[in-house]
Amino acid sequence: MSQAPVIVHVSSEVAPFSKSGGLADVVDALGRALVDEGHRVLTVSPRYRGVAPDAAATDLHVTATLGGHPHRAEIVQLNREGVEHFFVDSPLFDREGLYDDHQGPFGDNHLRFALLCQAALHVARRWTDGDCVLHVHDWQAALVPIYLKGLWQPLGLLTDATTVLSMHNPMHQGRFPAGLFADLELPPRWFSPGALEFHGDLCLLKGGVLQAQQISTVSPTFAREILTASGGFGLHDVLASRAVDLTGILNGLDTALWNPATDPHLPASFDSDDLSGKAICKAELQAELGLPVDPDAPLFGSIGRLDPQKGIELVIDSVPWLAEQGAQLVVLGSAAASHRHLEAQLGALEDRYPRHVRAWIGFSEPLAHRIQGAADFFLMPSLFEPCGLTQMSALRYGAPPVVRRTGGLADSVHPADASGQRGTGFVFGPATGSDLREAMWRALAVFGDPSALEGLRLRGMATDFGWRAVVPDYEALYDRAKALAGERAS
Ligand code: ADP
Ligand code: GLC
Question: Which of 227, 241, 292, 430 is most deeply packed, by most CB within 10 A?
Answer without folding.
Answer: 227
